[in-house]
Give the backbone structure.
Amino acid sequence: MSELFRRLGPLIGAWVVATTALWVVFLVVLPQLVMIDGSFRPDLPPSRIGGPEDVYTLANYATLWQNAIHRSIFLRTIWSSALVTLLALVVCYPIAYYLAQSVRGGTAALLVVGLVIPFWVNEILRTFSWFLILSRNGLINQLLQGLGLIEQPLHFGGSGAVMLGMVYAYILFMVFPLYNAIESLDRNQVEAARDLGAPWWRIHWRVVVPHAKPGIAVGCIMTFMLAAGTVAVPQIMQSLPGGTGARWFTQVIYSWFFDGGSWNQGSAYAFALLLICVVFIFAMMRLFRVGLRDIAK
Amino acid sequence: MTSDRLLRGLVLAYLVAFFGYLFLPLVFMVAAGFNDSRFPTMLPWEGFTLKWFHGFDAQGRAVGLFQDARMGQAILNSVIIGLGVIALSVPIGLAGALFIANLRSRAKSFVYGVMVSPILTPGVILGISTLMFWSNGLGVGGGLLLTVVAQSTFIAAYCMLLFLARLERFDRSLEEAALDLGASQAYVVWRILLPYMRPAILSAAMIAFLQSFENYNTTLFVIGTQDTMTLNIASRVRLGLTPAVNAIGVILIALTVVGAVAYEILRRREAAVRAEAEKRLRAAEAAEVGALRLAAG
């Protein structure tokens, strides 16, 4: 702290400390604590808040476990998000490796720009573009009908469509961390391994993947968090015919807040989701042996 | 040799498939924005039209994007929120970066972890916790202001990471020299630190705006009865779909492409200027060495 004031002086130093404190306390920490606090309290009408019934309870969490529909949506959301993460990793690794190690200069820059453009087209529109392909009058149905292969339009709605939309929407959150990690690998290491006669899969397993660990961890954490936490993608994909069955856990949370009017109940569901994400982050950090510093770069 | 060629072919095919997967849905979406069909689809092609931007249907009803007052209001709200987020997140991010860069205590990694945690938290949870804290606790209801606050919790963290990356390369000796020569700390911040941070401040402002503009999941919980562009698009997809949504897509994608190309051109020009300066320096050095030799000879 003294270093801060020595370098910046009393006035600017005080501004830095005060602004940082306001952010961390009022925007980051307190709101989370209030949400967690609410999740352990019963929903009471305003007149009875603070009264004898306003005590800490696990009832809101019990609801999540006892309601079979909510529980299954919760578990399916976790499982599907993990699957989306794995799919994205498998699809992105070859591209990231190719961009980072095999092309140079102008071509690489051009391809990276090619990745940046869809990245900045927002999540809603990216999902919408797949909605248009899969919808009742969509591209696939029109093509198949035009070719005379089907009479009635096919229904593509369901978990598959939601997951397809998610892989498409979040794939670039996987590509960029992987690319950044692999790019910093010295090409001579790959050359050396090749000269010494290592087959290509061993080069990846023993040289590239160990080096890319922080990137893999970041990509997986971001993709999982975005997939588990999205409302946009399932909302849009459910408008497909046959898509009503594929509810996402975030939509259950949303309806507690705005259809059910039970905020504390919704908070408990939200905190459960947050816990899953935290567990996933720590599991990844453990698995790839990386620290928080490596992750948030 | 043949296996090498086979591998090359496979890599190329994968590259084409990957970029096709990224771009074709967007291409279809753009094309459908110009199709004279009641549904947003590219097939069957019923003729080129601009009516989804500005025009009328067979019954004389206005169907174009630009004639839609609600969409206009929604875009205006998104811009206001985006500017608000810049005004809040960029100073917070700068303060946070200066704070953490000058912290020498043991708590550093813990504080850092708390500061970057919003990036790793699902957007819906940031929205919910902000709503619980401000609305229940302080009586600030959902609306534009609360949306600015909720989005800033994580966008400020992104800004901080950008500033930290630039601060790491800051040459401290400049600052020390100025202080030794008797400059006040405030003067050093104003004349040395801030000019050095200028490019990072600009890119932080740009990224803050883009992040805010495309945000959906956090906004959904804190916007109250107002509308933003992403919310408007999502409700159109769910409630009544016309190719006017594609017209929004066309405009946003065009802006993104122009932005990405402009950025790339600027980057290249800067690199060229730097290379030219270096070449001149070398030539001058060579001339100097030559002159010295001549004088000595």
Q: What stands out?
A: Chain B has two domains: 1-63+243-297, 69-241. Chain B has ten helices and no strands.
